[in-house]
């Protein structure tokens, strides 16, 4: 077995494991969504019995399952699948892109900030609070020196959005009326 075949085989095995893990997350429920980083929103939807998290996760598992088959086909363990010479580089490009962009995403995403933004949106019922919170978080990160150029462009965009969406532009939020 050549080195390329061994690499495809190991990549296919890891992708197959990721596909099965996604199916396990569906069965594991809200705690598994939280543990594996799907976010609080997906965990809450799963806890409420929504089908949305299961459909999304099953879709990801299906895509990973197809990618596993293509890796095994490329390694010569199963019959040759259609579009194999096109599919393998595209799958590799997706993995490389996710790997390259995954590092900045981890550095620039704070789960507690996202959760507090969701709480603020739940409380205020509008987008203004989220925009202001995002702007303040970006400003704080820019001060720390993380991704200065990227932060400056995002900061300008967020500031422009925050100026456009003011409390005068948003509809007034009426408190819920209690019926006795």
What would your notes on this structure say?
Helix content is 76%, strand content 0%. The protein has 180 residues and is mostly helical. The relative contact order is 0.08.
List the helices and strands and how they pair.
Layout: H1 3-28, H2 30-35, H3 40-47, H4 52-74, H5 84-108, H6 111-124, H7 128-144, H8 148-164
Helix pairs in contact: 1-4, 4-5, 6-7, 7-8
Please report the total strand number as a whole number.
0
Helix content: over 70%
**Envelope shape:** globular
Helical stretch tally? 8
Number of domains in the coordinates? 2
Structural class comes to mainly alpha
Please state the CA-atom Rg, rounded to the nearest Å: 22 Å
Order of helices and strands: HHHHHHHH
- How would you state the average pLDDT, rounded? 75
Major sheet attributes:
none
Strand content: under 5%
Oligomer status: single chain
Distance from N terminus to C terminus (CA atoms, Å) equals 77 Å
Low-confidence stretches: 115-138, 165-170
């Amino acid at each position: 077995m050549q080195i390329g075949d061994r690499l495809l085989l190991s990549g296919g095995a890891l992708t197959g494991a990721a596909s099965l893990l996604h199916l396990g997350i569906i069965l594991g429920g809200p705690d598994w969504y939280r543990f594996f980083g799907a976010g609080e929103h997906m965990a809450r939807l799963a806890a409420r019995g929504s089908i949305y998290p299961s459909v999304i996760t099953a879709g990801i598992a299906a895509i990973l399952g197809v990618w596993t088959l293509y890796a095994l086909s490329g390694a010569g363990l199963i019959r040759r699948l259609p579009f194999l010479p096109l599919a393998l580089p595209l799958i590799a490009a997706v993995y490389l892109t996710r790997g390259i962009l995954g590092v900045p995403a981890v550095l620039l995403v704070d789960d507690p900030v996202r959760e507090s933004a969701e709480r603020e949106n739940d409380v205020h019922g509008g987008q203004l609070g989220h925009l202001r919170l995002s702007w303040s978080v970006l400003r704080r990160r820019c001060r720390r020196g993380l991704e200065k150029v990227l932060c400056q462009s995002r900061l300008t965009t967020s500031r422009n959005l925050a100026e456009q969406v003011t409390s005068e532009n948003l509809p007034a939020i009426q408190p819920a009326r209690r019926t006795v």
